[in-house]
Amino acid sequence: MINRVNKPLRLDGAYNIRELGGYTTVDGKTTKTGVFLRGDGTQSLSDRDLDILNDIGVSLVVDLRSPDEVTEQPSRFHLCEHIRYENVVMFDGLRMFLASEKMPKSMAELYCILLDKCKEQYKRIFGYFLDNKGVSLFHCTAGKDRTGVVAMLLLQLAGVPDDMIIADYSVSENNMSGVFEEQHRTLYASGIEVPEIVFGSRTEDMENTLKYLSDNYGCAESYLLDCGLRQQEISSLKTIFVD
User: Fold this and answer.
1) pTM for this entry
2) What pLDDT score does 230 carry?
């Protein structure tokens, strides 16, 4: 039996910012609250939203979006005092696939490319987490793809079972349903056809990504070692995140 998936914070300008704490691990421990938040875009956060996140203790924001996305819709945290803002540009697969008109057959295909091609970026991201003393918020645009892979690595590193990792990933489609419907209409009106898989967070996509991680790297810990993190740093991450 899995835990109940954490609900998003009630914010005016974001719909998928939520805790990674409170999940039971395979050895009976629990991921700590007030350590990591995963989320969607932060460009539309209201002043009230910023106050809520500040009160929660957010002191680091890692923005995983591309330069174009950041330029078009700057994060509200970009010029926020007392909050460290870092933009770590991931392999922007969807834009590349759209440009080449060769879309992935599944979102899992994109996630596996992220694992293979973005090891330096993951090293930086987890290094920022280690340096931070408050709450770390990491996000992309929808909070399910680039964000979903980081969340997967954190949760598996903590010892959260795969079914909970999959459940935590899968709720993004529902959380973002209104936004996705509007995006779909806008793209269609512009003559851009995007496969339905882009707007989904199907369980099989995370299942297949976890299998790829296992088959090719062993586990999140061995993957992060391959990215260049030291064993001591990985142990520190577990201490930070697991109670």
Assistant:
1) 0.91
2) 98
